[in-house]
Design a protein that fits this description.
With about 260 residues, this protein is mostly helical. It has helices spanning about 1-30, 35-40, 45-50, 60-95, 100-115, 120-130, 135-160, 160-170, 175-210, 215-225, 230-259. The chain is globular. It is found in: Cell membrane.
């Protein structure tokens, strides 16, 4: 009882110290971010006046926008699919309970690099390599999403139950067989859920890549912005919202069945 009481006395001051550190970090971050609710309140009138320019939406070119949004969804599909395929072996090599520590360190830093750089930067690089168009956007989404899914997939592997793996190992199975029959079946539902979520995010991201010439609805969006055609911008944004909402609804149903 005395030991527990002494531990509680030590824990309480330590928590206070960590709380003070957290508050200090938040204050410093707010200062560096120029957060000012007063400026926001003063600018609400200008913001409301600017937003009013977007209405009513101009759906004159809706057929063209529909074609663009289908192209954007196609970019999201292929960028996500390619990333999911490559992320599987990388995730295995980045999991501490499966791979050696030296390999885990190297692969994790590789995934960090892929994930840290925004898709727009990758799109600029691939536009130079393959030219303007959706293929550059697919490659940009593929690289960035591989870094994200590789991280999520590896965390799922590290959270598995060790029992099935140990049972397969006891039969004299190889390391590859342990992964295929002991690890993969446990993480497939979670991996699928992560992949579907990233697909939704990639459709949104693909809509921005058109700004640098990487295809999709972003090209029309950027051109409308530059021409100050706010009615067309509003129509494009509404079509994009509907598309993302439909994708979210469908993928949510799929995730519910898997988990």
């Amino acid at each position: 009882m005395r030991v527990l009481a002494e531990e509680k006395k030590l824990v309480t001051p330590l928590r206070i110290v960590w709380l003070l550190i957290a508050i200090a970090v938040l204050i410093y971050a707010a200062q560096k971010s120029d957060i000012s609710l007063i400026e926001l309140a003063e600018g609400t009138g200008n913001m409301a006046e600017y937003i009013s320019r977007y209405f009513p939406p101009d759906f004159t070119d809706w057929k063209f926008y529909l074609s663009d949004i289908l192209e954007t969804i196609g970019m999201g599909i292929w960028g996500t699919l390619m990333a999911a395929i490559i992320a599987v072996p990388l995730a295995v090599m980045a999991s501490e309970n499966v791979a050696p520590l030296w390999m885990v360190f190297i692969i994790r830093r590789f995934l960090d690099a892929m994930r840290a750089i925004n898709e727009v930067v990758f799109a600029l690089i691939f536009v130079v390599a393959v030219g303007l168009g959706p293929f550059a956007g697919v490659l940009a989404l593929f690289v960035h999403t591989t870094g994200t899914l590789g991280k999520l997939f590896s965390e799922a592997i590290e959270a598995i139950e060790p029992g099935p793996v140990e049972g397969i190992r006891a039969t004299g199975a190889s390391k590859l067989q342990e992964i295929i029959f002991g690890v993969i079946p446990q993480v497939i539902p979670l991996w699928t859920s992560f992949t579907l979520y990233r697909f939704e995010a990639n459709v949104r991201s693909a809509s921005v890549l058109g700004i640098v010439g990487a295809g999709g609805i972003g090209v029309s969006l950027y051109q409308s912005f530059r021409a100050f055609k706010y009615g067309k911008v509003s129509a494009i944004l509404l079509i994009l919202i509907v598309a993302v909402a439909l994708i979210d609804t469908i993928s949510a149903r799929i995730r519910q069945r898997l988990i």
